[in-house]
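Researcher: Next sequence.
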Amino acid sequence: MTASPALADRAAIAAIAARITRPVVLVGLMGVGKSTVGRKLAAMLGRDFVDADEAIVEAAQLSIPEIFETFGEAYFRDGERRVIARLIEEGHGVIATGGGAFVDPATRALVLEKGIAVWIDCDIETLVERTARRGNRPLLKTGNPRDILTRLAHERTPFYQQAPIRVESKNGPHAETARAIIEAIGQWL
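Model: Next structure:
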């Protein structure tokens, strides 16, 4: 008797999850799905999930747009680096980072050393559509979102490429992207 595909899939995921000994840290541009896919990924792996941006808001008692407006991006990045270091140290299972976090050299070095960095990549048209759904993106308030996302992709891709794992996020169920991440981690391990 053979196991059903769903049972075989769960067993394969459990086998990969058992080999993961470091936090899975999701990196990529805003709108690629780090938070939504991250929650699904954590559930599939049987691990906890934490969103670094939410942890920053909690620690600062200010929204991210308020932090940017009041203190500037450099101040935000410094706090972001400290929060991500704490989250990694606490041993969370899956951590979603902000779009610019992995660009910071100290944050990137920490994630590459103590986590499993997964770059979720996505085409610009999909990013424009996804980011238009939420009005809390400070970097998109300064001009045409498509132009800004295109520029950010150009500037940040060399940093994201340093992640050992890259998965494409497409319009479809988040479980598909989460499953692709698990398979890629399994191959990488």
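Model: The chain has one domain: 21-188. The mean pLDDT is 90.
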